[in-house]
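Q: what sequence does this backbone want?
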C-alpha cells in the first residue's frame, strides 16, 4: 500500500490497528516511528510481540483504548495515517475532527481509510481532502491528503504495493 518509495522518516499513526500490519510494514519500509491505537487488549499484546519479533519495539508505541479518545492523548504530527475500523463503525468524520483538533496531521500528510464499499465518505474531512478512491471487492480505500500545502515528505497515493491488514 505504501508503494516502492517506502516510508523513509515518516511518522505513522495506525488507528484501529488490529494486527498492526500496516504500521509494522511502514516501519519495515523505513518509517521513523509508528503509534498503534487498538481497543482490544489481546491485539495490543500481539502488536507489541510483533514489534519485538521484527526488532522494531523502539520505534513503535501501542496505545490501548477507544480511537476517539486515544487520539486526543497523542502529541506530535503524523505523515501517514491509517484508519481501518470495523465496517459497521462509521465514525470517520468525528475521528478526523478530533485528529485535526489535536494537531496530529502533518503538512503534506496522507491518510488511507479502509471501509465498506457501501460507506460513502465526503470529499473532505477535517484537515484532509479526498485524493483517490478505489474499490477492491467489498472493500473501499479512500486516500486523503493534508490540506496543508507544505509537505515534509512526498507520498504518491496512486502507487500500491504489498501489504495491508
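A:
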Amino acid at each position: 500500500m505504501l508503494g516502492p518509495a517506502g516510508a523513509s522518516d515518516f511518522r505513522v499513526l495506525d488507528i484501529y490497528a488490529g494486527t498492526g500490519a500496516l504500521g509494522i510494514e511502514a516501519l519495515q519500509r523505513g518509517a521513523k516511528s509508528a503509534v498503534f491505537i487498538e481497543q482490544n487488549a489481546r491485539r495490543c499484546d500481539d502488536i507489541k510481540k510483533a514489534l519485538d519479533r521484527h526488532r522494531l519495539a523502539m520505534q513503535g508505541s501501542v496505545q490501548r483504548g477507544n480511537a476517539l479518545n486515544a487520539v486526543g492523548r497523542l502529541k506530535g504530527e503524523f505523515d501517514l495515517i491509517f484508519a481501518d475500523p470495523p465496517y459497521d463503525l462509521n465514525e470517520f468524520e468525528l475521528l478526523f475532527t478530533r485528529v485535526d483538533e489535536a494537531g496530529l496531521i502533518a503538512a503534506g500528510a496522507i491518510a488511507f481509510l479502509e471501509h465498506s464499499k457501501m460507506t460513502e465518505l465526503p470529499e473532505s474531512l477535517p484537515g484532509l481532502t479526498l485524493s483517490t478512491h478505489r474499490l477492491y471487492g467489498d472493500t473501499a480505500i479512500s486516500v486523503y491528503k493534508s490540506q496543508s500545502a507544505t509537505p515534509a515528505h512526498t507520498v504518491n497515493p496512486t502507487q500500491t504495493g504489498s501489504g495491508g491488514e
